[in-house]
Amino acid sequence: MLSHAIWVGLLACSTAFAQDFSTSPPVYPSPPTQGLDWEAAFAQAQAFVSNLTLEEKAQLVTGTSGPCVGNIGAIERLGFNGLCLQDGPLAIRQATYASVFPAGLTTAASWDRSLMYQRGFLMGTEFKNKGAHVALGPVVAPLGRSAYDGRNWEGFSPDPYLTGVAAEETITGMQDTGLQACLKHFIGYEQETQRNPSLSADNITIESVSSNIDDRTIHELYLWPFANGVHAGVSSIMCSYNRINGSYACQNSKTMNGILKGELGFQGYVMSDWGGTHSGVASVNAGLDMDMPGPISSDQNSSYFGGNVTQAVNNGTVNETRLDDMVLRIMTPYFFYNQSQYPPIDGEEPALASSFPPYVYQFTLGPANVDVRDEHQQLIRALGAAGTVLLKNVNNTLPLSAPKTIGIFGNDAGDLVDGEYFSGPAFQSQYGYEYGNLPVAGGSGTGRLSYLVSPLEAIKARAIQDGTLVQYILNNTLITTPGGLATILPVPEICFVFLKTWASEGIDRIGLEPDWNSTGVVESVTSFCNNTVVITHSGGLNVMPWANNPNVTAILAAHLPGQESGNSLVDILYGVVNPNGKLPYTIAFNESDYDYAPITNSTELLETEDPNAWQSNFTEGLLIDYRHFDYYNISVAFEFGFGLSYTTFEMSDLTINTIAVGNISAFPDASPIIPGGNPSLWGILYTVNVTVTNTGNTTGAAVPQVYLSLPQIPGEDPTPLNVLRNFDKIYLDAGQSQSVILPLARRDLSYWDTGLQQWVIPSGPIGVNAGFSSRDFRQSTQITVVA
Ligand SMILES: *[C@@H]1O[C@H](CO)[C@@H](O)[C@H](O)[C@H]1NC(C)=O
Ligand SMILES: *[C@@H]1O[C@H](CO)[C@@H](O)[C@H](O)[C@H]1NC(C)=O
Ligand SMILES: *[C@@H]1O[C@H](CO)[C@@H](O)[C@H](O)[C@H]1NC(C)=O
Ligand SMILES: *[C@@H]1O[C@H](CO)[C@@H](O)[C@H](O)[C@H]1NC(C)=O
Ligand SMILES: *[C@@H]1O[C@H](CO)[C@@H](O)[C@H](O)[C@H]1NC(C)=O
Ligand SMILES: *[C@@H]1O[C@H](CO)[C@@H](O)[C@H](O)[C@H]1NC(C)=O
Ligand SMILES: *[C@@H]1O[C@H](CO)[C@@H](O)[C@H](O)[C@H]1NC(C)=O
Ligand SMILES: *[C@@H]1O[C@H](CO)[C@@H](O)[C@H](O)[C@H]1NC(C)=O
Ligand SMILES: *[C@@H]1O[C@H](CO)[C@@H](O)[C@H](O)[C@H]1NC(C)=O
Ligand SMILES: *[C@@H]1O[C@H](CO)[C@@H](O)[C@H](O)[C@H]1NC(C)=O
Ligand SMILES: *[C@@H]1O[C@H](CO)[C@@H](O)[C@H](O)[C@H]1NC(C)=O
Ligand SMILES: *[C@@H]1O[C@H](CO)[C@@H](O)[C@H](O)[C@H]1NC(C)=O
Fold this sequence. Notes:
Helix content: 10-25%
Radius of gyration: 26 Å
Oligomer: single chain
Number of strands: 31
CATH class of the largest domain: Alpha Beta
CATH superfamily of the largest domain: Glycoside hydrolase, family 3, N-terminal domain
Structural class: alpha/beta
Largest sheet: 6 strands, mixed
Bound molecules: 2-acetamido-2-deoxy-beta-D-glucopyranose
Number of helices: 20
């Protein structure tokens, strides 16, 4: 192993702890796969590789044009039909008759492992039945360092533990169907601005932004959920567009050879993000296994891979054993999931494919427009509700009981009027479309709706049962024009204001309030309606300047619920579902509270002639989201982990059970590596046991959460005061109690020691806090693992 000193850093910084952003040290050669956990398939892949010509091997690692978003050409003489790779993290994006599931953000807000798994499984079924071998998801980077990142909603949460669980459940669900998952984007991909190189006024190539992240922060924050994914057996990982510590993610030997394939023992293949490859030999030797979509964007007829790989092997700059390893990494999951027996690619795909011409895919496609939706709308409706967070509910404003009059306001309430907008015109637009509900956001992580149930439609359908008078104005300009609400008579008993926040790949957000004069709309409605419920649909977190307005009597963060949007919401409003979502991020009081991790951007940078100018130093280290607000003792509007219910819960009887036998050492046992790294890290050392009681009058679900308080490490990044280290979701009838067991693995109790280059359990007491949010601890104790 290379001297860690280069990586760990010797630079004295202005801060009190060591952060070196200067280099990304070389780590060669690329560790070969051993097919761990995939032994039989690995043997099949070895036999397959032994029959390939050099040209065929090069073809297998290089994308080509075809019916899918990414395509690997077939090798007919060996019965290999090629690979079809499709977007994305919440739906098979461009397919007809497919479901649009709740976004990752909503899934995280459910804090429900079972729903996370089911969503992954049902998505997997749809991808497979459309003939896709690989789904380009889930997303764990961006993690959500910056609140403004345009793609945070595609992933789960800025908390690595919650994101790790969500990724693991999603991958397991997807791959249990026989589909390969692709966990993305590796690593440090935390802004859209300058994610790709650009040309300056003088035609100099200005390189992508470099995410400069110190070793401890990489391990404890940004790598954490990738470790879960590798441990869950993910087939592939996509490297990202940005640079890491000065070197492009898709040719960074430290992150790919060193961390991913070495330390984490990843056995599958690394594919590039589309156009994220910037070299041939250098990328191959740094650990990139597959170039997507294949051609160099500026020259559709050439590739950094393809013929260049053949040439590189022939001239000795790439070992053929390395090329064999690339093919083995690609073919082993294919055999493991028995993908030689697989449904055909949907015949409609070529018409829908956004991939570059010319279309030259040699294999017969299946029937067109296969309906893969089945009864998946039931899970979509349930998860949409489970990921809706009740933030305020004065005097039981909700649930509704047959109100006489309802008012509905805002351009997010109604149906879509602009057609299929999500990956088309709205791609890289700042505000998206004006009229229509926001079920999901835009870019490659979106979906093609086969229908949408809007909130207005669902509320009207429900209101008819109660004989409720329903009045509505969806035009935000009219709502905020003096006298604009004059037609609403009588003043409704309860008013609903629907706000939305667009976000899309390729562009970061420029504000954190919902769009379309949202605050004006709330002010307008609350000035005449003293019982106003605000509902947000949002591609990320929002600040809520109106949260304390006394006429705002309830607030629901409905996130991005997918195609059953209105039904999911009505279930919450009318108490069919007792709200049980919890915030997977923190809502601060002010937008400026998020300045600790700004998007790197400025007029100077946009006009620079310095190829290396775009540098983003992650100086906040581990302190993002609640870790930042807690460490600096900043009050917030609604904290991470918070969410109300129509009932109430109590917690009691905290005890700790020791699971590990004998003395526990500070360092993990030296064991042969498994996918996920050192196996000791995954071993359970303790369980935290608590009793949760439903003390209210109605059935509901609670989310008990365990936070650990690890000590500060001298000379290192500040340690967060508390970090989430387990949770569960439990459904309880009124008056019912249940004991909950929350295991703690060695990794959960460790920090990354930059000197030793391994996970270490700190000596002395570790605080254990159990409660219902990051600021609502009900029971506390300590464990001393290592004296
Ligand atoms: C980033 O950190 C490096 C030290 O590692 C420093 O030289 C550089 O000025 C910093 N860049 C910015 C934009 O803060
Ligand atoms: C490939 O080669 C192996 C020997 O390594 C042979 O047993 C096998 O039949 C060949 N497979 C195909 C599909 O040609
Ligand atoms: C930059 O390249 C473009 C396209 O090749 C060309 O039209 C333009 O004149 C060049 N600009 C400069 C400053 O060289
Ligand atoms: C090899 O890569 C270079 C860029 O490094 C490119 O110009 C060339 O066309 C590629 N060759 C082939 C055969 O694709
Ligand atoms: C070998 O081939 C590769 C790929 O075309 C090329 O980039 C490299 O410069 C060549 N090296 C030598 C020593 O010929
Ligand atoms: C090729 O493999 C040999 C033997 O394992 C190794 O010494 C050499 O460094 C490798 N070359 C490259 C370019 O990776
Ligand atoms: C809530 O109810 C209590 C008791 O009926 C009342 O005193 C209080 O004003 C109410 N609060 C609001 C905001 O309506
Ligand atoms: C929305 O209301 C404004 C103000 O009354 C009006 O000018 C505009 O035409 C309306 N938009 C639509 C789409 O009706
Ligand atoms: C980046 O900065 C430029 C110039 O200040 C601004 O016009 C643009 O909106 C910024 N982009 C983002 C995403 O903040
Ligand atoms: C936003 O709403 C306020 C009313 O609260 C109104 O005064 C203002 O004109 C609106 N702004 C725009 C741009 O429509
Ligand atoms: C609350 O609503 C009442 C009407 O019921 C209105 O008179 C009052 O000004 C409103 N308060 C605020 C803060 O908008
Ligand atoms: C709220 O508004 C309703 C209807 O306008 C009115 O009857 C009621 O008195 C108001 N309540 C308060 C506390 O202002």
